């Protein structure tokens, strides 16, 4: 039995429409991925909340294990500021173990740089950021742990 | 017997004096390289900056920077060193950061750090006791992606009231370090990345 011409056209129309929709969705997805920006760190739920010195000691004990556990995780670290170090036109905040010299350093996201600049040495602060991991520095002979896209948590 | 006891006592006292001395020396040496250390010929920072730009006409996204670079300079020996955790390079675009750290580019899981160790070739032309800006030639070994290559770079050293500012721009051929991803072949990532280094050492 022959398929009526009207039905044939209707089938091709549906296929064409589906292809067009898939094409538009594909283009939109590519544009989204290419233009996506990181979310504001303050709005992300942290995977871990820790005392900075505890994190330092965990990295000092075994940084391979600590890296596996914490790298690329959003974390909140609480501790006392040991140094506010100038970098370009802004600052990095550090929390260090005064005995070993090992430290955690936080580089801030654009919208929190102003708040970071107001922080003073000795202040107790809570900072949220993305952990980039730690390593033993051959230059300083201490463990160092770095964070990026940080925000003041309190 | 008395002599033996006296000898043992003498050895013990002498030993403890030497032990105390060696501990105090090692502590002193360590304090000279700890962050914030002011005295001594070695100046350091933990907030140096390294940025790279591998953009092309096809893609303006392959660029990022790391603001937590450890840097040191020994103004007597003329040695310069940098150290960086690769994963702390930050990007505006999450996909670009993922590509940068992936096995086809920096493979930061396998090679988590990059470093440079070198010497100032024209050390005698730089007066670290006098404020000013001096042209510097630095030669050394750059290690990244598990490959070490010799590099020479021109830069500047500024001395401002005891603080030393160093800055340098140079190009890195990614293929020299075994980086040959499909994005490079497609012209989306430059074959040579521009690298800028700056640090303020105290």
What's the short story on this structure?
The complex is a heterodimer of chains A (154) and B (202). Chain A is of the alpha/beta class. Chain A is built from 4 helices and 7 strands.
Structure description:
The complex is a heterodimer of chains A (154) and B (202). Chain A has helices at 5-35, 52-61, 63-70, 113-117, and strands at 48-51, 74-80, 83-87, 90-96, 103-108, 124-136, 143-152. With 154 residues, chain A is α/β, with parallel strands linked by helices. Chain A has 2 domains: 1-36; 41-152, Nucleic acid-binding proteins (OB fold (Dihydrolipoamide Acetyltransferase, E2P), Beta Barrel). Chain A is elongated, with a radius of gyration of 25 Å. Chain A starts with a helix and ends with a strand. Chain B has 202 residues and is an alpha+beta fold. Chain B has 2 domains: 1-31; 38-201, Lipid/polyisoprenoid-binding, YceI-like (Lipocalin), CATH 2.40.128.110. Chain B contains 3 helices and 8 strands; from the N terminus they run H-E-E-E-H-E-E-E-E-H-E. In chain B, strands 1-2-3-4-5-6-7-8 form an 8-stranded antiparallel barrel. In chain B, a hairpin with a 2-residue loop joins strand 6 (147-160) and strand 7. Residues 10-37 of chain B have low confidence and may be disordered. The interface between A and B is medium-sized, with 37 and 32 residues.
Kindly list the characteristics that best describe this protein.
heterodimer, A: 154 residues, alpha/beta, OB fold (Dihydrolipoamide Acetyltransferase, E2P), 2 domains, 7-stranded mixed β-sheet, 7 strands, elongated, B: 202 residues, alpha+beta, Lipocalin, 8-stranded antiparallel barrel, 3 helices, 21% helix
Question: How are the secondary structure elements laid out?
Answer:
The complex is a heterodimer of chains A (154) and B (202).
Chain A: H1 5-35, E1 48-51, H2 52-61, H3 63-70, E2 74-80, E3 83-87, E4 90-96, E5 103-108, H4 113-117, E6 124-136, E7 143-152
Parallel strand pairs in A: 1-2, 5-7
Antiparallel strand pairs in A: 2-6, 3-4, 4-5, 6-7
Helix pairs in contact in A: 2-3
Chain B: H1 2-31, E1 42-53, E2 63-74, E3 79-85, H2 94-101, E4 113-120, E5 132-144, E6 147-160, E7 163-173, H3 182-185, E8 192-201
Antiparallel strand pairs in B: 1-2, 1-8, 2-3, 3-4, 4-5, 5-6, 6-7, 7-8
């Amino acid at each position: 039995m022959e398929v009526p011409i009207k039905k044939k056209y209707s089938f091709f129309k549906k296929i064409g429409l589906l292809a067009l929709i898939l094409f538009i969705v594909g283009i939109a997805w590519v544009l989204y991925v290419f233009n996506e920006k990181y979310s504001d760190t303050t709005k992300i739920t942290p995977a871990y909340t820790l005392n900075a010195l505890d994190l330092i000691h965990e990295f000092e004990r075994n940084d391979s294990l600590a890296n596996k556990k914490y790298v690329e995780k959003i974390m909140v670290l609480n501790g006392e500021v040991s140094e506010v170090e100038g970098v370009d036109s802004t600052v990095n905040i550090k929390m260090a173990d005064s005995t070993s010299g090992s430290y955690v350093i936080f580089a801030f996201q654009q919208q929190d740089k102003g708040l970071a600049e107001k922080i003073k040495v000795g202040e107790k602060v809570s900072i949220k950021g993305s952990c980039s991991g730690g390593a033993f520095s051959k230059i300083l002979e201490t463990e160092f742990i770095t964070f990026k896209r940080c925000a003041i948590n309190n | 017997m008395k002599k033996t006891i006296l000898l043992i006592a003498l050895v013990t006292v002498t030993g403890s004096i030497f032990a105390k001395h060696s501990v105090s020396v090692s502590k002193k040496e360590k304090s000279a390289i700890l962050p914030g250390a002011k005295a001594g010929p070695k100046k350091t920072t933990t907030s140096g900056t390294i940025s790279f730009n591998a953009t092309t006409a096809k893609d303006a996204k392959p660029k990022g920077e790391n603001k937590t670079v450890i840097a040191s300079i020994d103004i007597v020996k003329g040695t310069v060193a940098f150290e960086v955790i690769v994963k702390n390079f930050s990007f505006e675009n999450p996909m670009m950061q993922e590509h940068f750290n992936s096995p086809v580019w920096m493979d930061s899981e396998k090679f988590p750090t990059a470093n440079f160790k070198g010497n100032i070739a024209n050390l005698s032309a730089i007066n670290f006791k006098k404020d000013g800006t001096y042209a510097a030639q630095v030669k050394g070994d750059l290690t990244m992606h598990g490959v070490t290559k010799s590099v020479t770079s021109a830069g500047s050293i500024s001395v401002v009231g005891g603080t030393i500012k160093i800055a340098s721009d140079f190009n890195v051929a990614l293929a020299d370090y075994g980086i040959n991803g499909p994005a490079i072949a497609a012209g989306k990532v430059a074959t040579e990345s521009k690298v800028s280094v700056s640090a303020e050492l105290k």
